[in-house]
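If you are new to this repository, start here. Below is one unmodified record pulled from the training split, so you can see the exact layout before writing a loader.
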Amino acid sequence: MWRDKPASFDLKGLLGGANRNAENPETSQKKRLARLRTTLVALTADPEDRKLLTDLAVENGWEIHLTPNLEEAESAVDRLQAPVALCDRELPGVDWRTVVRTLASSRHEPCVIVTGKRVDDYFWEEVIRNRGYDVLSKPLREYEVTRIVGLALSFWNSRTASQRKFRK
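And here is the target side for that same chain:
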């Protein structure tokens, strides 16, 4: 009878206790992100943001393409099929709304994240209305960038997977 056999599961793990074999949550998140498509296109003129994004790309295994203008960002998003694009709210010569609508309208609809110094609920709502995904406040913080990019990657992958199922 099955009750005579010893349990083959870790009760401490089920109850939230320590488990020797459990992974560090940070390591687990990095492994999960590595399985997702991790190509990012960033349109920002801020040298500090460019450095931070480049460092985070190396640390997290992302492929990042820094672009100087909307035309190159649009071309990179289409060519690389990047699931995530970041753009600065204060771009010289172009309105961020145009950037968001242009990038979000790409063939494979990347998640567009807008960065800015003044980020409030009104701005967030405006980004969403213009087909953006989310906002990040400046100065950029490593944890927040990693978290929001990870959520965007997960969202993009689940959305494209469901679209593929629907087309079949």
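Two things worth knowing about this chain: The two ends are 45 Å apart (CA to CA). The chain has one domain: 37-167.
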